[in-house]
């Protein structure tokens, strides 16, 4: 069976490539576990200077696997999705994301925890949590109102409106928008490899300084959101919306 997460090593760069094209790279419990484990290892490996998370030039990820949400919903903070979130939050090494095509749900919220984000202009980002009877996760209820203001954040989180890679770059969710998916992947790789040329300790200390002030607060918010999110998954609103998606496919 092909691996749904491909680990690729190039000099000091570890790339975690989402590779489940038939399901638009939707993330399963097993994929979260693999991502969490790889991030943890990269964090402790002195040979790794940066981590790149990417999908293909056509699709980043359709977010959490909806069949998994129905069959094996996360029940507490010991679930694979939360291990992934906390390992990304705690990663001392720079994390770079390369985004093309769809980036839905956690496919968008994980970008808020990456250090550099390269997107294709026509990438389609969306956080349809409320639309699915759910609520925001991965600190998005804290970060997005701060970044965009309440009024814009409400459009994205309460209405679940989608936006383009170009808008993501204008709003500071992404570092730069590129003309194609292939260009976004190539730029992300080029910039991620730059960390091989920089003094590693200075990079770690600088990232720590940038992230530390909010880290405890973010962990608390992620836990609060997570408790509500796992409850919502069992609500009649969410069950109807999730089953509706499966039945349409
Ligand atoms: N979980 C499980 N399977 C998913 C999925 C998800 N989140 N997203 C897509 N898929 C599957 C579809 O069921 C379909 O499988 P099938 O060919 O076996 O029927 C396949 O991936 C292709 O999806 P499709 O919807 O036909 O592709 P598209 O290009 O028209 O649209 C998306 C792509 C990502 C916009 C659309 O699939 C989508 O909205 N997915 C749901 C996203 C979502 O709500 N995620 C959860 C957020 S909390």
Automatic annotation (TrEMBL):
It is found in: Peroxisome. Keywords: Isomerase, Lyase, Membrane, Peroxisome, Transmembrane, Transmembrane helix. Its EC number is 4.2.1.17. One of its GO terms (molecular function) is enoyl-CoA hydratase activity. InterPro entries: ClpP/crotonase-like_dom_sf (IPR029045), ECH/Chromodomain_protein (IPR051053), Enoyl-CoA_hydra/iso (IPR001753), Enoyl-CoA_hydra_C (IPR014748). This is Enoyl-CoA hydratase. It comes from Pseudomonas atacamensis. The chain crosses the membrane at residues 95-119. Belongs to the enoyl-CoA hydratase/isomerase family. It comes from the Bacteria. CDD domains: crotonase-like. It is an enzyme of class 4 (lyase).
């Amino acid at each position: 069976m092909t691996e749904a997460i491909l680990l690729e090593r190039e000099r000091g760069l570890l790339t975690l490539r989402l590779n489940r094209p038939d399901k638009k790279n939707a993330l399963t419990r097993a994929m979260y576990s693999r991502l969490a484990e790889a991030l943890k290892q990269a964090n402790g490996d002195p040979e790794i200077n940066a981590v790149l998370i990417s999908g293909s030039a056509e699709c980043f990820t359709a977010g959490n696997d909806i069949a998994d949400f129905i069959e094996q919903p996360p029940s507490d903070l010991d679930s694979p999705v939360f291990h992934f979130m906390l390992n990304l939050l705690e990663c001392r090494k720079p994390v770079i994301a390369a985004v093309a095509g769809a980036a839905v749900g956690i496919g968008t919220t994980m970008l808020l925890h990456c250090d550099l984000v390269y997107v294709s202009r026509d990438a389609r980002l969306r956080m349809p949590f409320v639309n699915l009877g759910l609520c925001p996760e991965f600190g998005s209820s804290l970060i997005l109102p701060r970044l965009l203001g309440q009024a814009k954040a409400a459009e994205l989180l309460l209405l679940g409106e989608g936006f383009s890679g170009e808008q993501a770059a204008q709003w500071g969710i992404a570092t730069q928008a590129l003309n194609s998916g292939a260009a976004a992947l190539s730029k992300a790789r080029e910039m991620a490899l730059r960390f091989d040329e920089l003094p590693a300790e200075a990079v770690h200390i600088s990232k720590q300084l940038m992230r530390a002030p909010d880290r405890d607060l973010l962990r608390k918010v992620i836990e609060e959101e997570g408790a509500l999110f796992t409850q919502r998954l069992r609500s009649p609103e969410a069950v109807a919306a999730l089953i509706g998606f499966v039945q349409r496919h």
